[in-house]
Structure formats: structure tokens, C-alpha cells
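Here is one chain, start to finish.
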Amino acid sequence: METAINWPEIKQIKQKLAEFGYTKTYEAGSVIIQEYSRIQSVPFIVRGSVKVTQSDDDYREILLYYLEPGESCIMSVLGGLHQERSKLNVIAETEAEVLFLPREKIPELTAAYPQWLDYIFKLYHKRFNELLEVVNATAFKKMDERLLSYLRKKASVSGNTSLDITHEQIATELGTARVVVSRLLKQMEKERLVELGRNKIKLL
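Its structure:
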């Protein structure tokens, strides 16, 4: 059974976030949290969208999921609680306003407000499901399906069907080769799914 929303408590939590936290604005492409950096504060997205990626030992990256307003990266929350280094890169997909909550304040909010704990559990559940989707797509879906799904999600997050992105960037975020992306995009253009320009892709 879903927990009833306690609006007075929500208001108190927002007041505490404003009291404890601080905000910063990032241009698209700016790194908010770098992989292996020490987590001192946990980011919560106020405006815009943010992407979360992970790289391997050869510095190849793969896109894991996006964060939108009202969301946070649960790995950053857990890493902050346990004073660990970040296992992920958090990068502004669009211009983004981010509220940073000092990690030492998280246990205080968790102990004082049940609604806050419920919020953290819901974040964990959503991120877990998104990671499962990444695993399933990588293991079971064809690359053309993954590419089209990726473009649609990116368009949804940015609010624009015209994407300023290179084939190399797409290949990096999907963990594949640029030539594979280029070939599939050409095929998708023939099928009237996309329209290709110089460093630009328009979903049709």
C-alpha cells in the first residue's frame, strides 16, 4: 500500500534542504561529479536534466540513466553516506540548476522525516529498474533498437526532437563503435525515422 503524502512534512523537508544546501548552475556538458572524486555533497536536480555515465579501465563510457527535476543519483546518496568515492560521472545534459546537500545532513533528514526515507527508497527503486533496462538492452536488444530508444529518450529529456550530437558521442554513450552508429543512422534515415545533418539528428 502506497504511503500517504504528508504535505506538512514535505514542506519541512524543503525548508531543511534550503537551509542545509546550496545551489549551482551548470552549462550543458559541464561535469557535476567526476568519477573517483570524493563525495562531499549529494546533488538534487532543481531544473534541467543530467546524465549519469560510467567508464571502464580503457576510459570507454556508457550511459546509465538521466536525472530530471526532483531526482538525485542514489549512488551519490549511498556514496556520501559511506564516505566513498564516486563510481559514476554526473554531467549536465542541458543547462541545469543543482542543489547540493552536504552528506552529513542525510542521516539527520532520514531520522527526522519518514517521508524523506520513502523518497530515498523510491529513488533506489527507479534507478535499479533503469539499470536493469540497460543490462537487458545490452544483452538482448539489437543495436538498432537500442539506438532508436536512446535517441527518443534524449529527445524527451531535452524537450527537442532536433539533437545536436555527433556519431562519436552516441557511440560513446551506447558503448559501441562510431562506424556502427553511422551505418545504422543511414539505414534509419532511409526508413524516414530520422533526418541527418552535420552534427545534428532530427527525429521524424
